[in-house]
Amino acid sequence: MTDAIVEITRCEEFSAAHRLHDPRLSDEDNRRLYGPCNTDHGHNYILEVTVRGPVPASGMVMDLNVLMRILREKVLVEVDHKHMNRDVPFLQGVIPTAENVAVAFWKRIEPELRPYAGCSLRRVRIWESRGNYVEYYGERA
Ligand SMILES: [Zn+2]
Questions:
Q1: 37 labelled catalytic
Q2: Does the global pTM surpass 0.90?
Q3: What is the pLDDT of residues 15-59, one digit of tens each?
Q4: In this structure, what DSSP letter does residue 74 have?
Q5: CATH code, residues 5-136
Q6: 48 is a catalytic site residue
Q7: Euclidean distance between CA atoms 122 and 53, whole angstroms
Q8: Whole-angstrom Cα distance, residue 2 to residue 105?
Q9: Rg for the chain (alpha carbons), in Å?
């Protein structure tokens, strides 16, 4: 037992298709705004979820297998090998940029952590490609 606060991270991969398209804009404006991402295409995503908390007598902030199961049941089974614009109920009405997907994943994951004393969701990071990732910390403007 220490008074240390530690962050633990689980990484998962999933593959999904999407199209960046804002139905409020014309087709021409969508092409200008989103370029090639305005057409259907896919990514091999990496999801990294970080949980922060004290280190109790067990020595574990949280069982990483439990975190893995939450990610698989609440997020991955819904999005893996799916088209995010049309196949994923919790993304309906969302333009599936990595930013918006990160926020939507946060909303799915965060309530699942409430039963785990002292633990809180710290960060959702999504790698959309080798060069690009986004991070969400639960903040609102
Ligand atoms: Zn894309």
A1: yes
A2: yes
A3: 999 999 999 999 999 999 999 999 999 999 999 999 999 999 999
A4: I
A5: 3.30.479.10
A6: no
A7: 9
A8: 31
A9: 17
